[in-house]
Amino acid sequence: MKPGKRSGIAPDLLSFMMGCPKMRLAALSVFCLIPAALAAGPADYAGAEACRPCHAANFTSQSNTSHAHALAPSSPSQRGDWAFGAGLQAITFVTKVDRESYREDGLTWYRSIDGYGITPGQHDEKGVGFRTFDPAARILTCFACHSTGPLSLGKEDAVIPHELGVRCEVCHGPGAAHVGDPTHNPLRTPAQLTAAAMNRFCGQCHRTDSETGEEITDLRDPRNARDQTLRLAASACFLRGNGRLNCLTCHPPHQELDQNAASYDGRCQTCHANKVHRQQVAGLACVSCHMPQIPDGPNLSFANHRIAVYSPGNPLLPATTHAAR
Ligand code: HEC
Ligand code: HEC
Ligand code: HEC
Ligand code: HEC
Ligand code: HEC
Ligand code: HEC
Ligand code: HEC
Predict the structure, then answer these.
(1) Considering only CA atoms, which of 144, 164, 174 is closest in space to residue 45?
(2) Which of 60, 107, 141, 268 is most enclosed, with most CB atoms within 10 A?
(3) Does the Cβ of 308 fall within 6 Å of ligand 7?
């Protein structure tokens, strides 16, 4: 949405590359965000379809996630050229205007109202233009976070994603060699990462709130509602959980986000089996009180990943924290 300068490349280096047309393609390949894949080219990526014959169950379930549908060409009934967002909460449309620029539409489709409203970060229906190769590279970063493998350039400098959506090789690394000979070319899984490294890994994309692109760590700012990684890292459960709590504790990587709040109870109870409350909580989901939804603008909301005790009127700031006691 508001990608800022999260490309992982020093802004000065980026503007140098963008200023020189012959360097543009080189710069694009750097937009493949996963460090292990930095040196990889398009031929190193096999695409999700290639995994299907041997990993059918993971393929089928991952294909039905918001990750897999995070980017698509707009359908005839939609606006613009590209539809960003799977529609779990919203879809924003992006259009190629001319050789030099793209426009992010001023109107976004929101599930909560089943209709159009002003795009987050914008002020009216006009839309906002972005130069494709400006130093902040906003349009390139949109494509980079919502697709898999290196970006390339087509006719009239059109940005071409290698594979639509967040697919297998975002998390497992380039897989062409593995497809050819799985035994001698094993792939990694992020499950091997420590909890802190997992936050950084998922956080390459899951920290998209910032207007300015600066590192924002002020958890009191509601614009940081969607910073799942920073918020989780500030939770007592994370800080005192001896590395046992990470994104995968609650989000199986090949499954769609579970929006049934009670389904998370069992995950809390692996560590809090014997918690007895002073108040009546039976029948209510743990996360409804301890990970409350924070509104972000009129039509979006995000679960507060800073697990804590909240009072009903304030889903943003914990009523009590271990730090305060
Ligand atoms: C020709 C069959 C085949 C194809 C195609 C294939 N795999 Fe595999 N994959 C295997 C086999 C066999 C193993 C087990 C290898 C071993 O343990 O020696 C494996 C293991 C894995 C693992 C497990 C790693 C671990 O540590 O547990 C991952 C992840 C994986 N494959 C991902 C992929 C992805 C992503 C693709 C598509 C890009 C893919 N595979 C395509 C056969 C295949
Ligand atoms: C390459 C960028 C990227 C990486 C890396 C990534 N994600 Fe995502 N993730 C996205 C995008 C983009 C969406 C939005 C999908 C949509 O359009 O709704 C998303 C959506 C999700 C959702 C569903 C909620 C929603 O709003 O759609 C969950 C849960 C999630 N990611 C968890 C993870 C976890 C856990 C990891 C690390 C193992 C991870 N993601 C790594 C880009 C990424
Ligand atoms: C740093 C990676 C990153 C960049 C850059 C990025 N997105 Fe996203 N986008 C995400 C992730 C992650 C989500 C999932 C939202 C969440 O739950 O955190 C998402 C969600 C969305 C959604 C669903 C609604 C929402 O806000 O959750 C839309 C629409 C969207 N992005 C459009 C865009 C557009 C258009 C751009 C470029 C202007 C863009 N994104 C740039 C990572 C990114
Ligand atoms: C958001 C990150 C992410 C994406 C996208 C993803 N995986 Fe995985 N995958 C993981 C993680 C994390 C594990 C380890 C899971 C565990 O140990 O519970 C894993 C495990 C695996 C394994 C080995 C264990 C098993 O479940 O058999 C295979 C095979 C695999 N993935 C294949 C795929 C394929 C094929 C795709 C695409 C269709 C895919 N993955 C997409 C994160 C991801
Ligand atoms: C991996 C284990 C683990 C999991 C899973 C876990 N927690 Fe925790 N949680 C902890 C630990 C450890 C503490 C710190 C306890 C202490 O120091 O007394 C804690 C603290 C808390 C606190 C007090 C927070 C504060 O700031 O005072 C609440 C509330 C809480 N957990 C609720 C939950 C809920 C709800 C879930 C599920 C959504 C959950 N926890 C999942 C380990 C976990
Ligand atoms: C203790 C359980 C738990 C952990 C750990 C956890 N999440 Fe979540 N997550 C949830 C719950 C609950 C929701 C809200 C589901 C719903 O919409 O009803 C959620 C929602 C999300 C969403 C959808 C947008 C939002 O914020 O509501 C994304 C994206 C997401 N999580 C990513 C992550 C990432 C990345 C990590 C690791 C940094 C992570 N989560 C760790 C429980 C967890
Ligand atoms: C109706 C809201 C509500 C629900 C539902 C709820 N809690 Fe709580 N929880 C609270 C409040 C308020 C406190 C602080 C007072 C107390 O300890 O009773 C608390 C305290 C806690 C603490 C201790 C925090 C500390 O400071 O020591 C833990 C752990 C916890 N809850 C876990 C859970 C788990 C696990 C569930 C689901 C099985 C759950 N809660 C369901 C409201 C709720």
Answers:
(1) 174
(2) 141
(3) no
